[in-house]
C-alpha cells in the first residue's frame, strides 16, 4: 500500500489525514535502545487497528517563514512549549527528511475522549506522519511511514496499516555498535523495525469493548514506562514467553479462533502488568474498578460468554470478543457499578488522506 500524496499540491502545502488507534494483543513494553529515542521494542507486537477510535490531523507548512514557531492544537487546546515538544521533535524529523526549515501549524482532533484507555499517541502520530509527509510532497510508502511514525510513538508504527498488524522488532539483537553507526545517517527511514499487515479489516469481525473505570490522567506515561521495563526481574521471563505467544496469536487470528486468542492475550496483558508492577519504581496502573471488571469477565466466561480482557498502560479494561457477542458484553458491562462508560470498536482501515482540512 502506498499513501498517495496527490492532495498536497505544491502551492497548498497542507494535508489532512485520519488514522485509527489500535489495541495490542501482544504488547509492546520496553525498549531496546534506552536513551536513543528510536523506539526499538524488546519484542514483536500484534494489534488490531480500530475503526471507531481515530485521530484527524491537518498539517500546514509555512513557506512564507512568517510563523516563528510550530503551533499545535489538540482537541481545541493549544499546547504549551513542553507538552508540544514531542510533536515538534517529530516535525523536526519531517523537516530533516525534506531538507526544509519551515515551521508548521498542526491541528488534531480525536473522536474519543482522552484518558479513555485508547492510545491517542498511536493514532495521533500515525496521522501526523501521514499528513506532515504528504504536505511536504514526500513520496513515502506505508512501510517507510511506519518507520517514521515509530520514532514519534512506538505503537503508531502499527496504525500505519489497517486490520491485523504485526510490528517486527527488526533490529538484530547481536548488531554491533559499528553496524549501528553505519545505519545512523539513514536512521529516519531505516525500515528494519516496522509494522506490516497480516490480515485486512474484513478478515475477522472482532470487537474491542472498552470499559472506562477511571478518567484520571496517568501518573507515568508509556514513554517513561518503556525505559523502566528492564529494571523488573520479570522482564526477561515475559520477553522469553512472548515468542510462543506470538505464534499462537498469529494462528488464532488466521483461523478466527477466539478461544485460542483469548487466553494468550490475557496472559500477555497480565505479564506486562507484572513487569510494570515490579519495575523500579513500581508502576501500578490498576484501580479497584479494573479488578472488578477482570473478575466479572472471568465469571461471564465461566457462564459461557466467550469474552477476554487486555489492559494497556492505564486502569481501563479492553474486552475482546466476536461481533455476535458484543451486545451481550456491553449490557453486562453497563450493570457493573465501577464502569462509567463503554466504547466499542471493530477493526478499521489504515490511514487515509482527506480532501477536507481542519482549518
Ligand atoms: C501498553 O506506543 O504509547 O499500549 O512509544 O513511548 O509512545 P511510546 O509508547 P506507546 O506504548 C504503548 C504501550 C501499550 C502496549 C501496546 O500498545 O503495544
Can you describe this structure?
The protein is 35% helix and 22% strand. Helix 1 crosses helix 2, helix 1 runs antiparallel to helix 3 and helix 6 packs antiparallel against helix 7. 48% of the residues are buried. It has 2 domains: 7-172 and 190-202, Ribosomal Protein S5, domain 2, CATH 3.30.230.10; 206-345, Alpha-Beta Plaits. It is built from 9 helices and 12 strands. The chain is globular, with a radius of gyration of 20 Å. Residues 4-12 have low confidence and may be disordered. It has helices at 81-98, 120-135, 142-152, 177-182, 222-226, 235-255, 258-277, 288-302, 323-334, and strands at residues 14-26, 45-62, 71-74, 77-78, 103-110, 164-167, 195-199, 206-212, 308-311, 317-322, 341-345, 352-354. The two termini are 28 Å apart. With 359 residues, it is α+β, with helices and mostly antiparallel strands. The structure holds ligand DP6. Ligand DP6 binds at residues 24, 27-29, 39, 45, 119, 121, 153-155, 222-223, 226, 312-313.
- In the CATH classification, which architecture of the largest domain applies? 2-Layer Sandwich
| CATH class annotation of the largest domain | Alpha Beta
Query: What is the terminal-to-terminal distance?
Result: 28 Å
Output the structural class.
alpha+beta
The number of E-state strands comes to 12
Number of separate structural domains: 2
**Low-pLDDT residue spans:** 4-12
Nearest-integer average pLDDT? 91
**Range of helix content:** 25-40%
Q: What oligomeric assembly is this protein in? A: single chain
Give the SSE string. EEEEHEHHEHEEHHHHEEHEE
- Using only C-alpha atoms, the radius of gyration works out to 20 Å
Strand content: 15-25%
Bound molecules: ligand DP6
Amino acid at each position: 500500500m502506498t499513501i498517495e500524496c496527490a492532495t498536497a499540491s505544491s502551492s497548498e502545502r497542507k494535508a489532512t489525514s485520519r488514522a485509527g488507534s489500535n489495541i495490542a494483543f501482544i504488547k509492546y513494553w520496553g525498549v531496546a535502545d534506552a536513551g536513543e529515542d528510536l523506539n526499538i521494542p524488546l519484542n514483536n507486537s500484534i494489534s488490531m487497528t480500530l475503526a471507531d477510535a481515530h485521530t484527524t490531523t491537518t498539517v500546514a507548512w509555512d513557506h512564507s517563514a512568517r510563523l516563528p514557531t510550530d503551533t499545535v492544537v489538540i482537541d481545541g487546546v493549544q499546547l504549551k512549549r513542553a507538552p508540544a515538544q514531542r510533536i515538534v521533535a517529530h516535525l523536526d524529523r519531517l523537516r530533516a527528511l525534506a531538507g526544509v526549515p519551515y515551521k508548521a501549524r498542526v491541528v488534531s482532533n480525536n473522536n474519543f475522549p482522552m484518558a479513555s484507555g485508547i492510545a491517542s499517541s498511536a493514532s495521533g502520530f500515525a496521522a501526523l506522519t501521514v499528513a506532515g509527509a504528504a504536505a511536504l510532497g514526500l513520496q513515502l510508502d506505508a512501510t517507510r511511514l511506519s518507520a517514521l511514525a515509530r520514532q514519534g510513538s512506538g505503537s503508531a508504527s502499527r496504525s500505519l496499516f489497517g486490520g491485523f498488524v504485526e510490528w517486527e522488532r527488526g533490529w538484530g539483537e547481536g548488531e554491533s555498535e559499528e553496524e549501528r553507526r553505519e545505519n545512523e545517517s539513514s536512521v529516519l527511514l531505516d525500515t528494519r523495525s516496522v509494522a506490516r499487515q497480516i490480515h485486512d479489516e474484513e478478515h475477522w469481525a472482532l470487537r474491542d469493548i472498552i470499559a472506562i473505570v477511571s478518567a484520571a490522567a496517568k501518573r507515568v506515561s508509556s514513554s517513561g514506562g518503556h525505559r523502566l521495563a528492564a529494571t523488573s526481574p520479570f522482564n526477561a521471563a515475559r520477553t522469553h514467553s512472548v515468542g510462543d505467544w506470538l505464534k499462537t496469536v498469529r494462528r488464532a487470528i488466521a483461523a478466527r479462533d477466539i478461544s485460542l486468542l483469548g487466553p494468550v492475550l490475557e496472559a500477555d496483558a497480565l505479564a506486562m502488568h507484572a513487569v510494570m508492577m515490579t519495575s523500579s519504581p513500581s508502576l501500578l496502573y490498576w484501580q479497584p474498578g479494573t479488578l472488578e471488571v477482570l473478575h466479572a469477565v472471568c465469571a461471564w466466561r465461566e457462564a459461557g460468554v466467550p469474552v477476554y480482557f487486555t489492559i494497556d498502560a492505564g486502569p481501563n479494561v479492553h474486552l475482546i470478543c466476536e461481533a455476535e457477542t458484543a451486545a451481550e458484553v456491553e449490557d453486562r458491562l453497563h450493570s457493573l457499578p465501577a464502569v462509567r462508560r463503554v466504547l466499542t470498536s471493530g477493526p478499521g482501515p489504515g490511514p487515509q488522506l482527506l480532501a477536507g482540512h481542519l482549518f
